[in-house]
Amino acid sequence: MNITFHGAARNVTGSKHLIRLKDDTSILLDCGMFQGMGEQSEDLNEHFGFNPKKVDYMILSHAHIDHCGLIPRLVAEGFNGPIFCTSATMDLARILLMDSAHIQMQDVAYSNKHRARKGQPLLEPLYTDEQAMTALRLFKIVEYNQEHEITPRVKFKFTDAGHILGSAAVHVSILEDGKLTNITFSGDVGRYDDMLLNDPQTFDQADYILLESTYGDSLHKDLGPIEDALLEIIKQTCEVKKGKVIIPAFSVGRTQELLYALNALELRGVLPDLPYYVDSPLSQKATEVLMNHPEVYNKDVKEVLKTDPNPFGFKGLRFIQSTEESIALNNDVRPCVIISSSGMAEAGRVKHHIKNNINSDKNTILMVGYCEPNSLGGHLLAGDHEVYIYGELYKVNAEVKSIRSMSAHGDYEDLLHFLACQDPALVKKIFLVHGEYEVQQHFSEKLKAKGFNHIEIPYQHQRIELD
């Protein structure tokens, strides 16, 4: 038996881990898209490093695009097995993959106009909306804590990872040569005491663990209560400086957390009387999906629901749909708050909002999650005084703020808490995935201090034999 790491290996995107048994049965854990890595992303997304036709089964941890975004291409290149996920993940993946396909087709159509004029060969999208629909037909629902038999020798179950709606850690049990091997893939691990979701669940003893490590050297406890931090930034920017707050936020998870926090401020009677825009049609759909899955809410949210049937809605909130409405926001000089995707500010409508507001020191760009260092959001967080947006250089006159504690990824204390249910002496090896290499090296030392002495940080396409 071996496992090959075809993505999220010494970086944070493109999650793909392929388990191959002695009889050549192959199980793919996630099939994510590489994001925020510039031209390198394009090449990585076009070449899997394995033959999709030879993959028998796929298990999906959650619906973020860096974990599911290449599933349509996988299917288009010959995979036709079942794709197992939770029901909430299926609901989210449906809207995210269709949106992703639309973006692929739109971007290629735009590029091909220019290429045609220059006589250059035309490009093909990574996948089309029709291919995304074909892939979605392969999805099969397995709910949390239900053992599911893939073959007589391979079983798995999901436990709640507390990261986003439907997110799961994956626990695979494989019987080979009369020996049982238990492999846990963490997916992405959420925060304990999260604003919206249940805590990550405990899980049975594992022999091998594939553990995400995005924030393996960080703590998120630096800015106090999120609501108060948001309120201070909005009041200073919109009421004192008469500017705009631009918040790049992922459509799934982060946007809903922001809306919940703003709604809480209104319930307290302190939310400034301003226009609040969510400029992302996908965010509205994702919010509706979350409303349809109250089983994932923690006890605090369930308590709020007793008196407030919509914890994501408040006075002044408006969802922007059309491109024309989005463009009109840039011509409106009134103070306001604009929440828009993508979270790394690397694409989508938020990039236009940043471009149109970055020159004024009245405005604030508020980052509320992880950004790949080479993304626009990464450069802003690094304190760059000038950034390139759509090929043009802009001075960063707007104030750049961050609320690191809003990350949906657990910090190193959360990750260690996640592992607390394990006996370190019985874990043969932990593979650190989904993290920057330097961060993983630091986190490796923290794991060793807890008794996990066998740590490996696999590189891209590395194959490792399991005992």
From TrEMBL:
Family annotation (SUPFAM superfamilies): Metallo-hydrolase/oxidoreductase
Residues annotated as domain Metallo-beta-lactamase: 13-234
Domain of life: Bacteria
Short name of one Pfam family: RMMBL
Protein name: Metallo-beta-lactamase family protein
Hydrolase recorded as keyword: yes
InterPro entries given in the database record: Beta_Casp, MBL, Metallo-B-lactamas, RibonucZ/Hydroxyglut_hydro, RMMBL
Molecular function per GO: hydrolase activity; RNA endonuclease activity
UniProtKB keywords: Hydrolase
Beta-Casp domain span: 255-380
